[in-house]
Amino acid sequence: MKILIAVNMLTEIDSQVYPSHLQHMFRLGRNTDYEIMLYTPRRMAIAAARNSAAKEALRHNCDYLFFYDDDMDLHPDTLKTLISRDKDIIMGLCCIRGYPYRKMVFKWVEKENELTSLADLKTKGKLMTFWEDCDKHANEQGVVENAAAVGCACTLIKTEIFKYLEDPYFYTGT
């Protein structure tokens, strides 16, 4: 299995975060049979970096594209667990790094509320909003199905799906 791991780096890396990335890559190399490619583009807009990573994953015939942000510290089994769920797109539950630390999971809503303006995507008359209680909708594996969107701070995507989508694949709004 070939996986491109993309980390969008800020202009500098915190001295606590960098060793966690090294340790994570070491564990993946030692404890898995995955062929890993690490992709760390120079600092660019987040959507541009994600779109660039998707193109690289396609170019290298990767089975998966795994995003994790440069401020994430992952459990050693995160990637293995996400792969085992066998979903086209799956995110490890994570929160926005600023208060009030909302979960990066969105749902479709029919009517506008105070949070729909935070997700500025409108499709066919529907609006997106934060799915505050998404964890209450998890199945026995802990998976929340049919989210409208997720953040990509810890997200695994089957590369095959990009073949059916138009570029750009990622959009970052307000």
Topology record:
Elements: E1 2-6, H1 17-31, E2 35-39, H2 46-59, E3 64-68, H3 78-84, E4 89-91, E5 105-109, E6 122-123, E7 126-130, E8 149-150, E9 154-158
Parallel strand pairs: 1-2, 1-3
Antiparallel strand pairs: 3-9, 4-9, 5-7, 5-8, 6-7
Protein architecture, described:
- The chain is of the alpha+beta class.
- Helices cover 21% and strands 21% of the residues.
- The chain has helices at residues 17-31, 46-59, 78-84; strands at residues 2-6, 35-39, 64-68, 89-91, 105-109, 122-123, 126-130, 149-150, 154-158.
- The strands form two sheets. The chain has a five-stranded mixed beta sheet, sandwiched between helices.
- Strand 1 (2-6), helix 1 and strand 2 (35-39) form a beta-alpha-beta unit.
- The longest helix is centred in the N-terminal third of the chain and has 15 residues, at 17-31.
- The protein is globular.
- The N and C termini lie far apart (35 Å).
- The mean pLDDT is 85.
Task: Write a concise keyword list for the protein shown above.
alpha+beta, 21% helix, 174 residues
